[in-house]
Amino acid sequence: MRHHDTGAVSTEMAVLTPLLIGLMLLVVYAGRVAQAESNVANAAHEAARAASLQANPEAARIAAYETAAANVNVGAVSCRRLEVTIDPDRTRFVAGGQVAVSVSCTAGFGDIAMLTVPGSQTFTATAVEVIDRYRADQGASP
Fold first, then answer.
1. Is residue 2 included in any domain, yes or no?
2. Cα–Cα distance between 77 and 123 in angstroms, integer?
3. 115 lies in a domain?
């Protein structure tokens, strides 16, 4: 007796194709989340370094924000809201002191094709840098 399985492969593909596409989109989403986390961490480190090179707290705040804004949107994930804060307990701005910068980025992922991820996610990173002993305001002496 012979069984006719005509159409079985077509039925299996019709069932499995949406599942495979969904799995691919979830992998893309996970990659975008990892990229956003990496971008924010890099922006925090760069902003802390820029702040550590400045002569006073106000200049450090401005340099930290500008540097973070330039670095955080480098990748495919863009921030809807960017917050850059300098830790007030560490901003005495003496040579050899420390400055801590926190960067917070709220990003949406609704632009991923066919994967409508509702809302947004906030990524935060903090970096600490030693205030440069040879800043422009102090010349070349330690």
1. no
2. 11
3. yes
Strands in 79-86's sheet, in edge-to-edge order, are: 79-86, 98-108, 120-130
Residue 7, Cα to own-chain centre: how many angstroms? 48
Tokens for 86? 């300098």
- How many Cα atoms sit within 13 Å of 10 on the Cβ side? 3
In this structure, is residue 3 part of a structural domain?
no
CA 119 to chain centre: 17
Q: How far is CA 96 from CA 61, 133, 135, 142, in A?
A: 18, 6, 11, 10
Per-residue model confidence as pLDDT tens digits over 62-89: 999 999 999 887 776 788 899 999 986 6
How far apart (Å, rounded) are the C-alpha atoms in residues 52 and 45?
11
- Full-model pTM: 0.77
Host domain of residue 21: 8-138
Joined together, the tokens standing for residue 57 give 């707290």
How many domains are contained in the chain?
Answer: 1
